[in-house]
Amino acid sequence: MGTKEGSTKTITEDKTVFNREILSAEGQANHPKRKYHKKVNYSKYGYLFIAPFILVFIIFQLIPLGQTFYYSFFKYYQKQGDWITPEFIGWDNFVWLLSSPQSRFWKYLGNTMIIWIIGFVPQIIVSLVLAIWFTDSRLKMKCSAFYKAVMYMPNLVMASAFGMMFQLFFAQSGPINQILLKMGVIDSNIFFMESTSWVRWIISFINWIMWFGNTTILLMSGIMGIDESVFESARLDGANASRTFWQITMPLLKPIFVYVVITSLIGGLQLFDAPQIFSSNGVNNPNDSITTIMMYLYQLIQTSKNYGRAGALSVIIFVFTGILSILVFKTMVPSYNAIKQESKAYKKRMRYIKDINDKQSALTDGLSTKGAN
Amino acid sequence: MSRIDRRLMLSPAASVAGTPNSNSKNKKDKVKSSKGSLTVYRVIVYIVMTVLTIVCLFPFYVLLVNCSYASNDIMKGFHWWFGNSFGSNWNTLFTDTNIPLTRAFLNSLIISLSAATLTVYFSALTAYGTHVYNFKGKKFISTFIIAIMMIPTQVSSMGLVMMCIKLGLTNQIWVLIIPAIASPVTYFYMKQYLESVLPYEIIEASRVDGASEIRIFHQIVLPILKPALSVQFIFSYVANWNNFFMPSMLLTDRDAKTIPVVLSLLTGSSPATFDKGEIYMLLTVAVFPVLIVYLIFSKGLIKNLTAGSVKG
Predict the structure, then answer these.
(1) Number of domains chain B contains
(2) Is residue B305 predicted with pLDDT exceeding 70?
(3) Which chain A residues are Cβ-neighbours of B291 within 8 angstroms?
(4) A103: nearest Cα among A270, A324, A274, A316
(5) Tens digit of pLDDT for each residue in A101-126?
(6) Which of B7, B154, B242 sits opposite A297 (nearest CB)?
(7) Cβ contact (<8 Å) for B263 and A179?
(8) pLDDT for the residue numbered B35
């Protein structure tokens, strides 16, 4: 019995030694070779594969961007159908935009911000509530897929079609007035289009209806990313719903919440399609109250053909969105770093384990060879 | 894309890994003392959901109802149910010589389909290139693409318009198609997807089998990427279909216009004299093709959007 056991043991040991030898031989032979391969032979494919993207990007975005920046320092516009020769004027276009009484920059920026805020505040509230409901398992909501699909739907509809649709709906004899009259809510038609605040509310409503579904889904995925056990222990500790929300959900949701706010702000600055169609030809736009900053850019390029000032406006928008995107990255960086550090620690741990294994195997190798001798 | 794309936050990893953990929350049901309040809660939730659903659907319902009435019927008062002028409105719209609708529809279709195809193909190619190969400047390029992702394309529009006018490229629809090759947002999504699903061994195995690099991409990587490709294709299609800013600057010829540009033309001319039925019909034609496609794919799309978690 004893000898039999011993013999099987040596056989298995021999096997492991054998395997390990093959493995290590392979590793030693292949590892540097593979690295060498990847660096020299395959790198040209890397360049080849990204070349179309980079080329198109340079031609259609980087060069135009450079031109936009370049001409923002020039006096360059169309005068009675003829282009004047560009004349370098330094920062004058910027100064004009930011401080001239003829410049509409501040007014239109104000319009954009007002429309964004009165659309975004209800949007984030509704989205947060919906996201909590959709992820609340106590409710076990039926047809939640249907609700989600319907609420996401307006996001895919042409913003310009929305602009036109609401222009028709809120017209003096449009469906909204007709319905309100029929229901007896009002006695005579409301002139929605002649009121500064009404048109702003309508544009904000378009923004709201288009984006609340999207925001809901973003926040939902944020809430689902939170570890379920955190909620569980909060419940066991006797926290009620509102306390769980303010002290657990919100702090953990903060990165994605900030992300939503800033990206929505960047999106809000680009607001163009709906108000442009809604107010085309200058109708339905009392006191220019829904002209946004992008519509101003459009006017400068298309209508007044003042490329110098349009360039300066582009640069200002670029800088502004640039700052906002840096903010996005700043908020996302902590979580990024956490993941990175975690993976670093993991690698370190694995290396440590590997070291120990190697040492052990070296030891057993030595022992087994000794035994064989 | 008219507005910054927020979906890039969603890690596609989970869409492969599986569905969210809705079952694990059932434990809360054990609390039976609050059963009554739970019912109240539930009622409130359903009421709010229904109201929001109605709010979301109502505009489209009005659109459909009104495009089935003649112009003076629409002016007379609001109808809750469909009329019978659908066919005549359709005919008026498509035979109206002032609105180059068929042409615009075709242009929109060509631009959206080819731009979406180019976007997904080249984004995948670029993502694969930066994911698998090591080369000088790789890190710089991938960081750069992500850094410019948030900058709206409108800021370079002036330069692009200048360039197109100088080179005589206005009214050529390919000017709107080719730039689709470089789409940082789609690239970012594809990169994340690749990082989560593509094992390096499979590429090495194919190399051992003697496949060329481009063949590995076409026959191994693209099939693996299929779910990401289809989602991004739909989003890219919709974005191009709805795009208004650039087309309205570059497409000035009657026969080169896309649907949003045609819409802007209509509101531009005197709005009071319109055939209302025709306009509602035009809006229906502009909006519903996308909606129908969405309704067919919505289940997969929403799942794909929600399944992602921020952690990944």
Answers:
(1) 1
(2) no
(3) 153, 156-157
(4) A316
(5) 888 888 999 999 999 999 999 999 99
(6) B154
(7) no
(8) 67
Q: How far is A41 from chain B (nearest CA, A)?
A: 10
Contact A70, A300 (CB under 8 A): no
**Which residues in chain B have their CB less than 8 angstroms from residue A149's CB?**
295, 298-299, 302
CB contact (8 A) between residue B267 and residue A277: yes
A39, A225, A272 ranked by CB distance to B245: nearest: A272
At B115 the pLDDT is 93
DSSP three-state, residue A132: helix
CB A50 to CB B151 under 8 A? no
Distance in angstroms (rounded) separating the CA atoms of residues B126 and B186: 10
Supply the pLDDT for residue B3.
38
CATH number for the domain formed by residue range(s) A107-305? 1.10.3720.10
Residue B70: inside a domain: no
Q: Determine the average pLDDT of the residues in A168-179.
A: 83
Contact across the interface for A42 and B245, Cβ inside 8 Å: no
Query: Is A199:A134 a contact under the CB 8 Å cutoff?
Result: no
**By three-state DSSP, how is residue A369 classified?**
helix
Residues in B closer than 8 angstroms to A193, CB to CB, are: none
Domain encompassing residue B229:
6-17+98-307
Domain regions of chain A by residue span: 1-30, 107-305
End-to-end CA distance of chain A: 23
ipTM score for this prediction? 0.79
Model pTM greater than 0.80? no
Task: Chain A: give the shortest CA distance to residue B181, in Å.
Answer: 6
CB contact under 8 A, A307 and B158: yes
Query: Are the C-beta atoms of residues A210 and A157 closer than 8 Å to each other?
Result: yes
Please report where in the chains the tokens 């840096």 appear, as a residue: A326
What's the pLDDT band for B117 if we cut at 50, 70, 90? very high
Determine contact: A158 vs chain B, CB below 8 A.
yes
* CA distance linking residue A156 with residue A281, whole number of Å: 26
